[in-house]
Amino acid sequence: MKIEHLGIAVKELAISIPLFEQLLNTPCYKTEEVASEGVSTAFFQTGDSKIELLEATGETSPIAKFITKKGEGIHHVAFEVENIEAEMKRLQALGFELLNEKPKNGADNKLVCFLHPKSTNGVLVELCQEKKS
Ligand code: ZN
After folding, report:
1. How far apart are CA 21 and CA 18, in angstroms?
2. Hey, is 83 helix, strand or coil?
3. Would you give per-residue pLDDT tens digits along the chain (133 residues)?
4. What is the distance in A from the centroid of ligand 1 to the CA of 85?
5. How many CA atoms lie within 13 A of 34 on its CB side?
6. What's this model's pTM, rounded to 2 decimal places?
7. In angstroms, what is the span from residue 52 Cα to ligand 1's centroid?
8. Of the candidates 5, 4, 3, 8, which has an alpha carbon nearest to the alpha carbon of residue 74?
9. Residues 6+ apart with CB under 8 A from 95
10. Which terminus in the chain has less CB density within 10 A, N or C?
11. Which residues sit with Cβ closer than 5 angstroms to ligand 1, an ion?
12. Cα of 57 to ligand 1 centre, how many Å?
């Protein structure tokens, strides 16, 4: 539907939050830890999309590994979908490799699924759907 957010890996939220507040001229509206993913996140609204900063909460966090390998920078692109399960089935049938078989709980009240970058030209893609209450 649209690019919901861009995920950016950072070493320290404490440094990057004020930096992005200045850059985007908007306050960070939410910070949230996703323990299952080993990340602390911080969100900024930029028009219809968001920026998600990601800091590792431990050495085994995928973000820690990413930063060791590639340094800080753009980590993933998240696309909003209406029906995540249908979209996962559609992409799987086309040969895309999903990193999780079922939607999982992500930050910011979302169900999420990641696609393996090797099936998407090196771009880590996140599908996300707003959780219906
Ligand atoms: Zn994300």
Report:
1. 5
2. coil
3. 799 999 999 999 999 999 999 999 999 999 999 988 899 999 999 999 999 999 999 999 999 999 999 999 999 999 999 999 999 999 999 999 999 999 999 888 899 999 999 999 999 999 999 998 6
4. 17
5. 24
6. 0.93
7. 6
8. 8
9. 119
10. C
11. 7, 52, 78, 126
12. 16
Centroid of ligand 1 to alpha carbon of 94 (angstroms): 23
CA 122 to ligand 1 center in whole angstroms = 16
**DSSP conformation class of 115:** E
What amino acid is encoded at 37 in this protein? E
Helix (H) or strand (E) holding 10: none
In contact, 123 and 74? CB cutoff 8 Å: no
Taking the C-alpha atoms of residue 13 and residue 129, their distance in angstroms, rounded to an integer, is 25
Cα 84 from Cα 63, distance rounded (Å) = 24
Looking at this protein, which amino acid is placed at residue 118?
A: K
Using only C-alpha atoms, the chain has a radius of gyration, in whole angstroms, of 14
5 Cα to the center of ligand 1, angstroms: 6
Place of tokens 């649209």: 2
